[in-house]
Specification:
Shape: elongated
CATH topology of the largest domain: Alpha/beta knot
CATH superfamily of the largest domain: SPOUT methyltransferase, trefoil knot domain
Helix content: 25-40%
Radius of gyration: 23 Å
Low-confidence stretches: none
Largest sheet: 3 strands, mixed
Number of domains: 2
Number of helices: 9
Strand order of the largest sheet: 1-2-5
Structural class: alpha/beta
Order of helices and strands: HHEEHEHEEHEHEEHHH
Distance between the termini: 48 Å
Strand content: 5-15%
CATH architecture of the largest domain: 3-Layer(aba) Sandwich
CATH class of the largest domain: Alpha Beta
Bound molecules: adenine
Number of strands: 8
């Protein structure tokens, strides 16, 4: 599952440049069972199967997990956000464990000091997709992974406001026009239009983000202050 995602596009380029290095370990390679079994039924009953300690311990030890920061992808975990991703992106190395049955034997998590991380309040069939979501979002925060044209600074969430509406050619498509101001070449006016558009969208869709944005110190220009005043006073 991982190879097409990690080998493609921006992540693939980062790997070839040596900025990102993902080593995949198949726990099944560490089983001592003749049927290559890695899961068993839970004590106390209940649905599904759990990852057994022995193959997981051996796989984890093979990558030195006892000396590294270990993350277990789980809907029980702390919800992933930009603060956590920024922190993880600064780590030299991480070990990410993906459960693929009902879960894993708790002793695996306890012994290696796993931190549990969730990608949201819903349940996936395994930890692989959540791990790829984490790797992708984290990699973009590692210096050098994004090219200059893919820069982070104007992006949604990272600037504190949702990203403004964008348009490309043609100017008119099936009767729908691009806002005139955007091809006027007046960069100052364009920036103000984008700021206003971002503010409106954030106010409408994510009032929680707008509140956090306004609580931060900013050095607004006179024009930006006027826009802020107008947008905030609209009902
Ligand atoms: N595994 C299954 N569901 C998950 C979720 N929401 N987040 C992280 N790992 C998971």
């Amino acid at each position: 599952m991982f190879e097409p995602v990690l080998g493609g596009s921006i992540l693939g380029r980062a790997s070839r440049q040596g900025i990102l290095d993902v080593e995949l370990v198949d726990i099944r390679d560490y089983t001592q069972d003749k049927h290559r079994k890695t899961d068993d039924t839970p004590f106390g009953g209940g649905a599904g199967m759990l990852m057994m300690p022995q193959p997981a311990f051996d796989a984890l030890r093979s990558v030195g997990a006892e000396r590294k920061r270990c993350i277990y992808m789980s809907p029980r975990g702390r919800i992933m956000d930009k603060e956590l991703l920024t922190e993880l992106a600064a780590e030299e190395e991480l070990v990410i464990l993906c459960g693929h049955y009902e879960g894993v034997d708790q002793r695996i998590l306890d012994a290696f000091g796993f931190e549990e991380v969730s990608i949201g309040d819903y349940v996936l069939t395994g930890g692989e997709l959540p791990a790829m979501v984490m790797i992708d979002a984290m990699a973009r925060l590692i210096p050098g992974v994004l090219g200059s044209s893919e820069s982070l600074s104007e992006e949604s969430v990272y600037s504190g406001l949702l990203e403004y509406d964008q348009y490309t050619k043609p100017r008119e498509f099936e009767g729908m026009e691009v806002p005139e101001l955007l091809f006027g070449g007046n960069h100052k006016l364009i920036k103000l239009w984008q700021f206003e558009n971002s503010l409106r969208l954030t106010k409408e869709r994510r009032p929680d983000l707008l509140e956090a944005f306004l609580a931060q110190p900013h050095e607004f220009t006179k024009e930006e202050k006027r826009i802020l005043h107008d947008v905030l006073s609209e009902t």
